[in-house]
Design goal:
Elements lengths: L39 H12 L7 E4 L6 H13 L7 E5 L9 E5 L3 H23 L3 H31 L2 E6 L2 E8 L2 E2 L2 H5 L3 H17 L1 H40 L4 H16 L1 H4 L17 E5 L9 E4 L4 H5 L1 E2 L2 E3 L2 E3 L5 E2 L2 H4 L4 E5 H4 L3 H13 L1 E2 L4 H4 L13 E2 L3 E6 L1 H10 L1 H6 L2 E4 L3 E3 L2 H17 L7 H15 L4 E3 L2 H17 L7 H15 L1 H11 L10 E2 L2 E10 L2 E15 L3 E4 H4 L5 H18 L7 E7 L12 H13 L3 E2 L2 E3 L2 E2 L5 E2 L4 H15 L6 E5 L10 H8 L4 E5 L2 H9 L17 H22 L1
Parallel strand pairs: 1-16, 1-17, 8-13, 13-16, 21-26, 23-24, 26-29, 29-30
Antiparallel strand pairs: 2-3, 2-7, 4-5, 5-6, 9-12, 10-11, 14-15, 18-19, 20-25, 21-22, 22-24, 27-28
Helix pairs in contact: 1-2, 3-7, 4-7, 7-8, 18-20, 19-20, 23-24, 24-27, 24-28
Catalytic activity: Hydrolysis of proteins in presence of ATP
GO molecular function: ATP binding; ATP-dependent peptidase activity; serine-type endopeptidase activity
EC number: 3.4.21.53
């Protein structure tokens, strides 16, 4: 009866056969290059997102790591960047009107560096030539002319003053302290000794005359003040005219060179005015105290230099800190005071990628809320504001800058997990507006001839790129079979290329150990086995406990209310199957099914749901004409780490039916599969690991030829079993069954007919359902009598 449920040998594994493809080793194949395998939907989404020029069409690439997201994004972004122009350079210059707001200027790619050098050379030449010009004969001649004009004017003025002064017995002389008036005695100016000999009356007389003289000469001295101011202006104008000629000489060619930029012309005009205001700084090599950094204002901060590019930039940021991504303003510690200037404005990768593509990792950008919020604000406003993080964090600094924003025109690509995308999409409104393209990377691809060829070419490409030994056709077939195992599907291949690449590298190493010039099938098999061995210490310890019977498990005989279930345990990247004994005790009562794991809070919600579904099945099947007067306790024996998932719900139901009916279950057959309330078996995950786990236990305890595993029929497509298990099945030492319903499963486990209702709504006598129904009727009647007596 059970043979019809046995899975055929050919369905236990999808063996790869590449005989239709003509090659001996992967060296005969064209390397895959940058072509993406099995991700048509994702690649088209990325290309479409890169093609849309409208605002908000940034891209989020969602998927698991190792699926080729980074390598493809890098390749396709570089291809698209070749179609875009090289973006402008950006410089920051001193703002002579408001030093705390540096000016940003964009120049054609390469001109930023030119502008910086031009300015450096110009200021150097001006400093040299301004010093020289003030020592020139022409300048000295002009200066002397002004001095003589002033001297002649003063001499003439003194003559006028002396004419008036004689009337008051005063004389006027020109001294270092200016024009002085001195009283006369015998027509000769008095000295201090003469004045001290005067009587009080004589001194008083001199004071009266002095006051009258001051009144009479007021207009003359006012004229002198005006002349002084005029002469100073002439000297200043002489300096300006002298320096202006030099400034014009050096700046006129620069204005012509950069005439296309209005902001550059405006900067040159402000520069010229500032030099004329500060001519004194150019006259000496040593700056006055407090002005040591004066000439810093004439420097150029080459903020973004695209001189080496011939296309749009593609920038990958692997460490998305605030400063790395968004730029920064650095500070210098001067005697304990933090100071900065416009030359300390540093770009972030968002500025380096401006005009092209910026690729970020979600886990990095989302780990800092300030960085994420600032990035969104820049994308919304289409401009880069280089903020001061110290200010945002309320740190105290002496002063800060507010650089002029730079317009942004770039595409941002974030690479992250599905969880990150779903979280952002659900809770961040700005994210939905800014990242309208989602490229969804699958972890699997169809296993067809085309993808198998591409996988072979992928292997060949790695061999060429990494200088590895090439793989034989049989070795490639083994890799493809392993890809199906990783995908948990015989008709699919894993898209986790990192895991595939690891097998390629490790198989090459085993070939090297064998001194083989090529990688054979045996080397691939060795690489897979050794990888499992390296990660399998926990599995080994578990199975040692089974062997020592520290963990109790029967793999032969029959028992009532006892069954072997299967679970998958993951340790890092390695997963293995672990059998567990499940026992059920049933008795009269109204507690229903008691999930002991739940009672001690060691079961998950999905497992609890599976147990409740069993209650639904029992009620639907047996309680149409009577109440369920039964209590049933279910437990995973010797399980101390918790349990979740519903893959054991059918297993638990079989044990309940066995306990109620009294029909024993074969301990040689382990079971996996979930069940619904109608008794239909549903698929589960980890079917290969579960089968192989029970096989290892049976092999450990001794294969009898009766042992096997029962799985849902839907999981047949997932079978990619190890060669050892397939060989054991082929030799009749192990068996794998697929079932669709509880009825089919219970018959395999008990060799007793499940039973179906006849026209009189009765089950065949002796069938499982008959025995269960009879027992439940008996319990219900006893419970009713007990209630009546009470």
């Amino acid at each position: 009866m059970n043979n019809k449920y046995k899975i055929s040998i050919e369905n236990l594994k999808n063996t790869c056969n590449l005989d239709s493809i003509k090659f001996t080793t992967t060296k005969d194949l064209i390397p895959l290059g940058h072509e993406i395998i099995g991700q048509k939907r994702a690649s088209e989404a990325i290309q479409f997102g890169l093609s849309v020029k409208n605002k908000g069409y940034n891209i989020f690439v969602a998927g698991e790591s190792g699926t080729g997201r980074n390598s493809y994004v890098k390749h396709i972004a570089n291809e698209f960047s070749k179609k875009l122009p090289t973006p402008d350079d950006w410089i920051y210059v001193y703002n002579f009107k408001n030093p705390y707001t540096p000016i940003s200027i964009n120049l054609k790619a390469g001109l930023g560096k030119d502008f910086s050098k031009d300015m450096e050379n110009t200021i150097t030449l001006l400093k040299r030539d301004i010093k020289k010009v003030f020592h020139s004969k022409e300048y000295q001649r002009a200066k002397n002319s002004i001095s003589k004009e002033y001297e002649d004017y003063v001499n003439k003025l003194i003559e006028e003053l002396n004419t008036i002064g004689k009337e008051y017995e005063f004389a006027f002389i020109n001294s270092d302290r200016g024009i002085l008036s001195l009283p006369l005695k015998d027509n000769e100016p008095m000295n201090e000794e003469d004045i001290n000999k005067l009587s009080d009356e004589e001194i008083e007389d001199i004071k009266i005359k002095s006051d009258k003289l001051a009144i009479e000469t007021t207009d003359i001295f006012n004229d002198l003040k005006n002349k002084d101011a005029y002469i100073k202006l002439k000297f200043k104008q002489l300096d300006k005219d002298t320096v202006s000629n030099l400034i014009d000489f050096y700046l006129t060619p620069l204005k012509e060179k950069y005439s296309f930029s209005q902001k550059t012309i405006e900067y040159f005009n402000m520069l010229s005015e500032d030099i004329l205001k500060n001519i004194s700084m150019f006259k000496t090599d040593k700056q006055p105290e407090g002005f040591e950094d004066f000439f810093l204002r004439y420097k150029v901060n080459l903020f973004i230099d695209n001189s080496c590019l011939n296309k749009a930039p593609v920038v990958f940021e692997s460490n998305s800190t605030y400063h790395n991504l968004l730029g920064s303003i650095e500070y210098k510690n001067e005697m304990g005071i933090m100071r900065t200037d416009f030359t300390q404005i540093k770009p972030g990768t968002i500025h380096e990628a401006n005009g092209g593509y910026l690729v970020l990792q979600a886990k990095d950008i989302l780990s800092n809320s300030i960085t994420w919020t600032s990035l969104k604000r820049m994308l919304i406003n289409n401009e880069s504001i280089i903020g001061d993080l110290n200010k945002q964090l309320n740190y105290i600094v002496a002063g800060t800058l507010k650089p002029e924003p730079i317009p942004l025109n770039l595409k941002v690509i974030i690479i992250g997990s599905h969880y990150a995308y779903n979280t952002l999409y659900s809770y961040d409104e700005d994210f939905r507006k800014l990242f309208k393209i989602m490229a969804d990377y699958d972890t699997q691809m169809i296993r067809n001839k085309d993808n198998s060829i591409k996988m072979a070419r992928f292997i060949g490409a790695h061999c060429e790129e990494k200088n590895l030994r090439h793989f034989t056709k049989k070795a490639v077939e083994k890799v493809i079979e392993h890809c199906s195992r990783l995908a948990d599907h015989k008709q699919k291949l894993s898209a986790k290329f990192n895991s595939i690449a690891e097998i390629i590298y490790e198989a090459n190493t085993w070939a090297e150990f064998d001194s083989s010039p090529i990688v054979e099938k045996s080397h691939v098999k060795k690489a897979i086995e050794q990888k499992m061995y390296r990660n399998g210490i926990y599995e080994e310890k578990i199975f040692e406990m089974f062997e020592a019977e520290d963990i109790l498990l029967n793999v032969d005989g029959r028992r009532v209310g006892e069954i072997n279930g299967l679970a998958v345990i993951g340790v890092g990247e390695y997963s293995f199957g672990k059998p567990s004994k499940i026992t059920v005790s049933t008795y009269r009562g109204r507690a229903g099914i008691i999930n002991i794991e739940r009672e001690v809070k060691s079961s998950g919600s999905i497992h609890d749901k599976g147990v409740m579904i069993i209650s639904g099945y029992l009620g639907h099947k047996y309680a149409q004409d009577k109440p369920l007067a039964i209590s049933a306790s279910i437990v995973f024996e010797q399980l101390y780490s918790g349990v979740d998932g519903d893959s054991a719900s059918s297993t638990e139901l079989y044990a309940i039916l066995s306990s109620i009916s009294g029909i024993p279950i074969k301990q040689s057959i382990a079971v996996t599969g979930s069940v619904n309330q109608r008794g239909e078996i549903q698929p589960i995950g980890g079917v290969n690991e579960k089968i192989e786990g029970f096989y290892k236990i049976c092999k450990l305890k001794g294969l009898t030829g009766e042992q096997g595993v029962m799985i849902p029929h839907q999981n047949v497509k997932n079978l990619m079993l190890s060669d050892e298990v397939v060989e054991a099945v082929e030799n009749g030492m192990f068996h794998i069954y697929s079932v669709r319903t509880i009825n089919e499963g219970i018959e395999i486990l008990t060799d007793v007919e499940a039973g179906t209702l006849n026209n009189f709504d009765e089950y065949p006598e002796g069938s499982i359902h008959y025995l269960v129904n009879e027992k439940l009727s008996e319990l219900a009647e006893a419970e009713t009598c007990k209630t009546t007596e009470a």
